[in-house]
Amino acid sequence: MEEKVPMTSKGYADLNDELKRLKLVERPRIVAAIEEARAHGDLSENAEYQSAREQQSFNEGRIMELESALSHAQVIDTKALSGDKIVFGALVYLEDLDTEKKYTYQIVGQYEANLDLGLISFLSPIAKALIGKNKGDVVEVKTPKGEKSYEILDVKYV
Predict the structure, then answer these.
(1) Backbone dihedral region of 136: left (phi > 0), alpha (psi from -120 to 50 degrees) or beta?
(2) 16 to each of 45, 72, 90, 140, how far by Cα in Å?
(3) Dihedral Cα 38, 41, 46, 49, nearest 10 deg
(4) Are 85 and 142 in the same domain?
(5) Whether the Cβ atoms of residue 94 and residue 104 lie closer than 8 Å to each other
(6) In whole angstroms, what is the distance from residue 144 CA to residue 39 CA?
(7) Strands 119-121 and 91-96, sheet pairing
(8) CA neighbor of 73 nearest in space, from 134, 19, 150, 125
(9) Beta strand extents in 18-132 (DSSP E only)
């Protein structure tokens, strides 16, 4: 039995959009670039051809990865969730107890994680420490720079 890949509704839609773009926009563009590079002659010393082939390989690999993730997706509607307990999909407001700096993270699937957007994978150390905890709890997280303590200020589901 194949393992399900949890993801939010938005994450599923975003991955599906990326897959469509790779298939309908990038694939034809790369094929055209390969054809153009072939027209320049000797393929063994044709940097444009080699570059286009590398792009094609990367694009096809990403298509396969996305198709697999989407076919095994277990889409979780985070808007249907509620409460103070942290589970997959929660939007968590934290305060670093050492620096008093505040953070906001949403716990999402591994394919939709993006730290710049505050989206952390449920497999990450901080998400693992948060899941199952409640608003008001203090959690200890082991990081490469040592243990960090965070207070959970709030939990929301969006």
Answers:
(1) left
(2) 37, 13, 22, 36
(3) 0
(4) yes
(5) yes
(6) 51
(7) unpaired
(8) 19
(9) 73-76, 91-96, 102-108, 119-121
Structure tokens at 106: 């949403």
For 53, the domain range is 5-76
Tokens of 11: 């994450």
- The gap between the terminal CA atoms of the chain, to the nearest Å, is 31
pLDDT digits (tens, 9 = 90+) for 37-46: 888 877 777 8
Q: Which helix (H) or strand (E) holds 55?
A: helix 47-71
Instruction: Give the chain's domain count.
Output: 2
pLDDT of 41-62, one tens digit each?
777 778 889 999 999 999 999 9
Q: What's the token pair of residue 120?
A: 């952390």
Place of tokens 């044709």: 46
